[in-house]
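Troubleshooting log. The previous structure file for this entry was overwritten by mistake, so regenerating from the original sequence record. Sequence copied from the archived sheet and checked twice against the printout by T.R.
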Amino acid sequence: MAGRLWPDVPEEHAQGSLRSALWRLQKAAPGLLDVSGDALTLAAGVRVDVRELEEWARKVSTPDAGGADLEITCAGLHGELLPGWCDDWVLLERERLRQLRMHALEVLAVRLATVGRHGEALQAAYTAVGEEPLRESAHRAVVRVHLAEGNLAEAVRAYEQFRTRLLDELGIVPTEQMTRLIRGVPRLRSMAG
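Regenerated output below.
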């Protein structure tokens, strides 16, 4: 631990810095850490946003989830892991958590729409879109929710906005999977037509 936190100093100095930091932390937040021998862990009662995010994503993705499990309640839904840190392990873990959050939001949107909770479903879908505006699966969730609610014009509008943005920013069109969602939906007629 000391070597990770103070990699540019001799080991003995890093260990002294760790002891000093642990002493100050214990004074500022008693009971936060359990230190026994060579082991340093968070105390059992400490809430960890990463654990909460993982638990929430597991609940949302469970096939028989219902009621309170189908909610956006996780404090870890916003922000990123260790902002400003650029170590390889942090970058990988940050991306893993981002993907976990995105997939859970998309699943939640579709599941909420299935049980008729369309407003909450749109909130989940648009939270995913807001986090990653070019992610097609998040936009598919938006379109699916609109279709489930019977808002055909909204579904087409959401599709067209995504198609335009994708074309403008990346020069590509939505996949067949996305296009198939609205293929049978009649297009709005223009006022001049």
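Residues 61 and 107 are 7 Å apart (CA to CA). Archived copy saved in two places this time.
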